[in-house]
Amino acid sequence: MIDGILNSLQIYKGKWTSELNSEMELSNLLLTAPEKISPVISYLFGRYDSGNVVDYITNGMGRTVTVEQPTYEWDVMIEHDKAITIKRAVYNGSEVTSSDLSVMPGIAGSTYQIWTGEKWFGPGAIVEFDDNNYQARVVSEPYMDGNDYVYTLVCTDGKDESFTPPSLLLPGCRVSRLASAYEEWSDEADIFNAQTPFKLRNQLSIIRASYDISGDAYSSVMIISLRDPKTKKETKYWSVYQEWTAWRQWYERIDRWHIYSRYNMAEDGTIRLKGTNGRPVRIGAGLLEQISPANKKSYTTLTLDIINNFLSDLCFNIRGFADRNFLALCGEMAFREFDRVLREVASGYTLMDKSVFISGSGQELTLGGQFTTYKGLNGITLTLKHLPILDDTIHNRKLHPVSGKPLESYKMILLDTSMRDGEPNLRKVVRRDRELVVWHTAGAVAPAGHAKSIDTLRANAKDGYSVHFLTEQGIMLADPTTSGILYCDAE
């Protein structure tokens, strides 16, 4: 939008430049003129940090961790119980290879064997199959056959006619523990399982940017005055305007980086991408890459069933934690789709309080309002927050075939922002003392002004100065299994 005509009130079209901000280029940008009284216009870009959403929900809420090294690792605890896979089953000396019911493992109190790749049950364990209406007991200590463990099982209900259907014993079927059961004066016991956590690794990225101001540009006056929305200060000087612009672009780039960056360290710890000086260029994984691929679902037309089912799937991975609050980072079109869905649902109900959508009095009434929060089943809450970079037509050039808006604008990044054992699930990670490093290289001019004495020490002889920005940071989604992405697939 900024690249084209803003509206009919725009006097002339701005021009883009990334070169030295010299006096000549200021003239080409139509921003210089003799100093005179001129109207104050709104700074079109708004506050430079107002759209820094990712930083707001991490650092802005005190959810930042400082590390000493550029590579950081963390453990993700997983469930201590699981279902294990059956590799083979044998009954009466013959292998079970089909669902033929003429074979009845366990009939009349007989025993049968299953092979698994893990020692997961002890003697006396009660196990259940993929159909948990069928149960069996491990009758003795398992023994090894090559690399596999062999369990001898018997049906638990004591009925002569009971057996385990062979379809539940075929390779690939699974078996899990219900509990255990023993006789009086027993000396056996089931075992406890210890499942080690899996380890995740990410790395910090060094992000840099700089801009130059020539001596002439430092003193140049623009034909317009600009007001910094944050400080309310006004300026007509190009150098101050450039500083405001630089800060805004800096925060925008970091926000985009935390969403879209792609991890580039190989499994052996090496990085093939090299910089000019031959050293590796580290790129950490952004949020989209960190979210588990299994939790990325597409939709063509968003419905409440799609939202409910997706939230329910995510909650299956949050067992043991009471917090079921999700924050969805969304584009404008995702907001519209979400609002449409809830309005369609609400239309089937009687609205008791019409003031929810109607305000004002007499002839001055306003109709409006938007759904931004949904309270679903089992205590699930979904709250939407706008992420402007998803609407950016410069970077998101794949368009919806009907609306013509960026497909990325329809995306919903559902984040589990809960606390786990006192630690936030989502946090920003920074290198100590390098979260924000800003400095200038002075020549004849410094940000404070021109040099006026031979005793003034400068770094170079240029008629100007350079300002440099550097940060070393990344983003960490501690448990990647509890967040997800709903995206529109309408190409």
Topology:
Blueprint: H1 23-28, E1 40-41, H2 53-57, E2 64-67, E3 71-76, E4 84-91, E5 94-95, E6 111-116, E7 125-129, E8 135-138, E9 143-145, E10 148-155, E11 174-180, E12 198-203, E13 205-214, H3 215-219, E14 221-227, E15 234-237, H4 238-260, H5 287-290, E16 296-299, H6 304-315, E17 325-330, H7 332-346, E18 358-361, E19 364-367, E20 373-375, E21 381-386, E22 412-416, E23 419-420, E24 423-424, E25 426-431, E26 437-442, E27 445-446, E28 449-450, E29 464-477, E30 484-488
Parallel strand pairs: 1-14, 2-25, 16-30, 17-21
Antiparallel strand pairs: 3-12, 4-5, 4-6, 4-11, 6-10, 7-8, 7-11, 8-10, 9-10, 13-29, 14-15, 17-22, 18-19, 20-21, 22-30, 23-24, 25-29, 26-29, 27-28
Short description:
By secondary structure, the chain is an alpha+beta fold. It is built from seven helices and 30 strands. A hairpin with a 2-residue loop joins strand 23 and strand 24.
Structure description:
This protein has 2 domains: 1-78 and 197-347 and 369-491, phage-related protein like fold (Alpha-Beta Complex), CATH 3.90.1690; 84-180. It has a 6-stranded antiparallel beta barrel with strand order 4-6-10-8-7-11. The chain has 7 helices and 30 strands. Mean pLDDT is 82; it is low at 1-13 and 34-49. It has 491 residues and is of the alpha+beta class.
Instruction: Report the portion of residues in β strands.
Output: 25-35%
Number of DSSP-assigned strands:
30
Low-confidence stretches: 1-13, 34-49
Distance between the termini: 23 Å
Helix content: 10-25%
How many DSSP H or I helices? 7
Largest sheet: 6 strands, antiparallel, barrel
